[in-house]
Amino acid sequence: MIKSMYSSIAGMKNFQQKLDVTSNNIANVNTFGFKKGRATFQDMISQQMGGGAQAAAGGQGGINGKQVGMGSKMGSIDTVHTQGSLQNTGRQLDLGITGEGFFQVNNGEEDLYTRSGNFYLDEAGTVVNAEGMILQGADGGPINIPADAQSFSINTDGAVNITNAAGDNENVGQIALTTFNNPEGLAKAGGSTYRITDNSGAGVQDIPGVDGRGDLISGTLEMSNVDLADEFTEMIVAQRGFQANTRGITTADEILQELMSLKR
């Protein structure tokens, strides 16, 4: 009875964490460039009952082992980097990525990576994100649009072109995208950004559309890849799984009560 209680407690903890992941997905259903999380479970250690499995011998067939599981544990919490849908905004500094790659931004201390493409100009004409992190160009430096530029445009290959004060076309920068061998190994750093880890691999930066990188679509933003129908289903699964494990505890408790009543 005690074993079943502890197995149920482990299951309750897991489903609580699954609900945390699901709730976070739902909270970010409208967050630009957000990638949903996924919780997976694994069984814990199993106790061997009896002598274990035996091979066939002496004219007798083999015997399978007898094991009793001791509950479950959290196997992984994955970040699912599938493509989100592009929403048309008509704003030139809104950049959606269709395909692989991340924008590289710098917060003054380190480089971070994001799929959220809502960028702005600061007072110096530097392209920054909503938190003031500077978008890094292909040369590793910032991209600046002069104040006297009559207009500007961003091509699918990331080239930033302006019409200068004299009315001539001029290239003022090149937006690059960074890819990773294992993007699921990136660590979430807040603000819709990611940080390199030992398991993500070093990022490789290049022009959009090169070596499998996606294209930039100016005037669009990539939406979250969260599907509400899936998340509500996962929420129900987590709720019912939690309830089922609590029922296991109450059932074990009722049996213990019956054992205690034998004394009477």
TrEMBL record:
Protein name in UniProt: Flagellar hook protein FlgE
Family, similarity comment: Belongs to the flagella basal body rod proteins family.
Subcellular location: Bacterial flagellum basal body
Domain Flagellar hook protein FlgE/F/G-like D1: 97-161
Domain of life: Bacteria
Presence of the UniProt keyword ATP-binding in the record: no
Species: Sinobaca qinghaiensis
Pfam family, one: Flg_bbr_C
GO biological process: bacterial-type flagellum-dependent swarming motility
